[in-house]
Amino acid sequence: MTNQPVRVRILAENTLDWERTKDLRALGESFAAYLGEPVEFIWARPELAGLAREAVEPMTGDAPIETLRPVRVQTEGMAAASLVVDAEGRPDWGATWESFCELAFFGGPAHRSDDSRVRAIAEIPRVAVEQGFDPVAEIRRGVFLTTGMFSEPAEKPGWLAVSCRSLKQAAWMCACIVLEGVDARLDDEGRLLIPASPAFTLLDQVKSVITVMAKVNHYWEMHAMVYGLE
């Protein structure tokens, strides 16, 4: 097997406690899996770590060394994001959120309570479409703008079938969406099913379905990048 050059190195002082050191090592293994190449984990005495830092001090014209600060994970519910509209007056779903609170799957607050859960409606009234607003089409548009995924009406009324990139992604997102207070299923083809009905209103069910899809997909992409998921 040809030796691959090492391009990523994790340097930690050996004053870190053992649990944190194991976490860093696991992170390095995740990077190695994602990159498909070896990653070095260096556990060094503080004086040696300091010398290593001095050795890589940027020269004129080099990119600066970034100091990454802790990011506070929001476990409390966020205020509902205001609906952003584009120049044509349509919801600009891609510009509606700058961040998301923690997933209910990981202990964060659910987007909706069980009492207000968004459920699929099998009986399809046509009044909403006749009034000039198509909630189903808007959910499809919002899902595409926030996740890049195609969706279409499922064979079973009241559902949209979303084509995820893999069965693993569809199953993971399905579980997370249910915990966020929106119904979800998998169909026989392994596609993700989410509720969509002409009876839905823009600021209630439509916005909730798109919000939860955007939020769950955001976290899937984060984990996919770190752990090499497909």
User: Helicity range of the residues?
Assistant: 25-40%
Task: Let me know the number of strands.
Answer: 6
Q: Mean pLDDT score, rounded?
A: 85
CATH class of the largest domain: Alpha Beta
Number of domains: 2
From the alpha carbons, calculate the radius of gyration and give it in angstroms.
23 Å
Placed side by side, the strands forming the largest sheet appear as: 3-4-6-5
Largest sheet: 4 strands, antiparallel
List the total number of helices. Answer: 6
User: From the coordinates shown, what is the CATH architecture of the largest domain?
Assistant: Alpha-Beta Complex
Order of helices and strands: EHEHHHEEHEEH
What does it look like?
It is built from 6 helices and 6 strands; from the N terminus they run βαβαααββαββα. It is elongated and about 70 Å long. The strands form 2 sheets. The chain has a 4-stranded antiparallel beta sheet. It has a two-stranded parallel ribbon with strand order 1-2. Strand 5 (185-186) and strand 6 form a beta hairpin. With 230 residues, it is of the alpha+beta class. It has 2 domains: 1-69, no CATH class; 93-227, Aspartate Aminotransferase, domain 1, CATH 3.90.1150.
List the helices and strands and how they pair.
Elements: E1 8-13, H1 18-35, E2 39-44, H2 46-55, H3 127-130, H4 135-147, E3 151-153, E4 159-162, H5 167-179, E5 185-186, E6 192-195, H6 202-227
Parallel strand pairs: 1-2
Antiparallel strand pairs: 3-4, 4-6, 5-6
